[in-house]
Amino acid sequence: MSNINDTRERIIRVVKTRFHNRSYADVGIKEICDMASIQKGSFYHFFPSKRDLVLAVIDEFALDWANGFVAEAFDPALPPMERIDYVIDAAYFWQKSSKDLNGHIPGCLFGNLALEISTQDDVLRAKLNAVFTSAKDRFRGTLDEAVEQGTIKPLDSETTAEAMLAYLEGMILLAKAENDPEVIYRLGPALKNIRIETNRH
Amino acid sequence: MSNINDTRERIIRVVKTRFHNRSYADVGIKEICDMASIQKGSFYHFFPSKRDLVLAVIDEFALDWANGFVAEAFDPALPPMERIDYVIDAAYFWQKSSKDLNGHIPGCLFGNLALEISTQDDVLRAKLNAVFTSAKDRFRGTLDEAVEQGTIKPLDSETTAEAMLAYLEGMILLAKAENDPEVIYRLGPALKNIRIETNRH
DNA sequence: ATACTAGTTGACCGACCGGTCTATTGCAAG
DNA sequence: CTTGCAATAGACCGGTCGGTCAACTAGTAT
Prior knowledge:
The structure is a homodimer.
Chain A: H1 7-21, H2 29-36, H3 40-46, H4 50-73, H5 80-102, H6 109-117, H7 122-148, H8 157-178, H9 182-187
Helix pairs in contact in A: 1-2, 1-4, 4-5, 4-7, 5-7, 6-7, 7-8
Chain B binds a DNA duplex through helix 3.
């Protein structure tokens, strides 16, 4: 217990950035072991398979995300609709700083993985979908608050939140294709104007 | 000349659906050859490398797309803003029918490839970006028409077109993660309300 | 001192990867 | 009938893939 055993953490740390900057298929176990300065036996002591690793990475990354810029952006102290602007800023700076570091826009890890493997592994797909759902819930809560405060007129907050998330992911996708973070600033302003009206039957 | 030599076409046809439904990395040369009933020698007679194949596939697919539902959706006979509704319908039915066929939503080939490999191959990235640019131009032309006809108030058609494309790709991404085409119908209505105002200096 | 076990090593596995190469086929032009 | 060449066949290549395994190490509990 008192022993400092950080091997598992080291594996995850090393692989997080690699999955994010490249792709699931492109990062091999051997490379991971080399970068973490371990042998394969150690790797498979902690993870039954590469698939289990990516499952763990999604969890860890979602946690980083929630504790990091998401917690900042969705700061309850900010007026609700300003939080949405903050999300744009956060997305921009993240992609921008990644590009400054290694020349490429990595995009969103969850979006990347979703498009790469969600047709091939349903468990993975469901896990990524859960991450998106919790992101959507953040938006929805913010919209509900804005409606309560009278900042915006009532709307279908659930669906609008989903639409905002879609738009965010789409912006990041185009920014990656263009390899230019400015796309996010260019398209960002439209995010908080997205509205889907309540469907009155 | 009179000889029916459809090997190249057969390779492309076989690989198009596979790249679309799985991923670039997941589809191997051997599999492609088997499915096209040829040997590796034939494959490498037509394509110098797997990378050159995917380059060709992008071209072919963009052509299919342009001649297929894009040509229909952006039918000049339709009122401009109705064309945008048509895009949603087309996206929905395509994803829906794919799911009915094999149980999975394939998403958008270009979006899939962009997120999978655009950090790893700049030529490929640029090619995909060009496809997105021409899609954006379609939207822009439609918006310009709508402005001319007075259907919508003047706006920044270039940036709004890009925003619409982002939203479309984002919807498809979420639909794939959820493996449910209904996402597209749920979020679709917001597409044509996206607006980015002209930036008056 | 002993037994147990989590952690680690690194050789090894079969399968498959993208790609090469030589030999052969078959058609078309001279 | 010969020459030439696009097209095809299929064995072969080194390397890497994800994953296994028996042996060993070191710290802990008894």
